[in-house]
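Table S2 (continued). Query chain:
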Amino acid sequence: MGRLGREMGYLSVRVALLLGAALLLILFLIAVCLIQALGGEAFVWPAVAAAVLLAVLLWAFSALIFKPYLRLERTMRLFLEGYTTADLTDLCQAAPTPMVYQMLEHVMKIMDSSELLKLNKRQAQYLALQNQINPHFLYNTLESIRSEALIAGLTSVADMTEALATFFRYTISKVENLVSVEEELENCRTYFRIQQYRFGSRLSMSIECDPEDKEEIYGCRLPKLTMQPILENSIIHGTECKIGTGHLTIHLERSGKRLLIRISDDGVGMDEEALSRMNERLGKSGQAFASQGTETRGGIALVNVNNRIHLLFGEEYGLHVFSMPGVGTDVEINLPAIANDRELKNKEALT
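Corresponding output:
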């Protein structure tokens, strides 16, 4: 865009031009009226010309100022509500002044998804260093406990310790990498096995997948620790609060180029207001991922799982929650069906 075209994009320039055109129109009509008055003629065609020119000015005001201003207002409202990936180009096309245009260009550069990924990764690395533990020490300690339990004949303690060690091995390793659906499901089974020592027969889980698509679905790639935090959320906030037995279901299917995973529980469910708040948070941008807030159930919040999906695959993918009080809750995970890490939208996330 040339300098002249860019300057015409500023609302302040448009207003000045329209005001100048209106002033010239008024001066022209005054001059015509004076000439006709001196000549003793009627004021018919100046009135018609004034009406036509006024209509043109009103249309220009609506198209060049009023509508762009409304678009600017709407986009800014979405931006302030947290939709940081909203198209800020509209804002630049209707910037009030050159300084505002420069500011918006700078904001667009800051909010670039690759830059946001780098920022999130730096923070994640800092937090990992801050909370670093020695995995080998943890594994060796758990193995020692398991050995002592076997010697003492405490088989259940040995089995629980082994499951815990397996779970930690999966969790503590590089969280940013993609894994196969099969690996993620195996971690869910390990986590559920640990929970069964607590809940016993009160809790059950099933995994549903079309046998014809099973091999293809199990080979799809997804972010590590995508399912387990949701499964944990379903147990803690769903079935645990319920009187009697509870059942969890993990349903997997492929629809075109998308992988759909639905984690369901028959727990207490959520009321309409709580459900609306949750889906509103899930609909917002990945900026919340950089600020580790208070929503840290199961080590990784539901919202953070959703934001990682947004950052890796784009905001057309992610989580959505369905729930009814007293019936249960479904968390639907919408992902691209990719079988190779090279198909990842933001490859910077794996470096």
